Amino acid sequence: MAARRFEDAVMPHLDAAFNYARWLTRSDVDAEDLVQEACVRAMRFLSSLRDGNARPWLFAIVRNTWYSRRSRRGSAAEVAIVSATGDERPDDALDPEQQLVQQDTVTRVRRALEGLPGEFREVLVLRDIEGLAYEEISLALKIPGGTVRSRINRARLMLKRKLEPWLRRDDIG
Fold first, then answer.
1. Which of 7, 24, 60, 96 sits CB 3.0–4.6 Å from 140 for a disulfide?
2. Does domain 1-80 sit in CATH 3.50.50.60?
3. Does domain 93-173 have CATH number 3.40.50.1820?
4. How far apart are CA 64 and CA 38, in angstroms?
5. CA-closest candidate to residue 63, choices 116, 12, 125
6. 46, 2 Cβ separation under 8 angstroms
7. Of 79, 89, 87, whose CA–CA distance to 124 is shortest?
8. Rounded-to-integer distance, Cα 115 and Cα 72, Å
């Protein structure tokens, strides 16, 4: 019964959990290990899933597992970000020039995201890349909804400022 509940609740969110883990670890291999460890914890603590909304619950477990690992290693490194898909290849449907522009855009946005402080990067990843609702982010990060909204707003402003010189340059040319 618990195995079936785990499958129904957690399995549909494994790809998203892996993407989030990859944003945290910056490595496919480390992300796989992290999600595996998080799944073991999720199975162990399945009874703590109350409202049936497993996605933010699983993201919280992935996040907590990541921070536990970092503290065990004694690492003071910042949480890193990689491409949401881990695949920066351009869309084949575009012509070669459009592909180069798309690839350049992805690279610039990723670098701008990497330059944001951790607490701001994380909310943007969860909201704009993983598509979590504000309430789900609040549950996953264990912070008030107002803080989630404030951080997202500030993060978007910081990201815009980082990208403005590049955007202005393209408007001229």
1. 60
2. no
3. no
4. 8
5. 125
6. yes
7. 79
8. 25
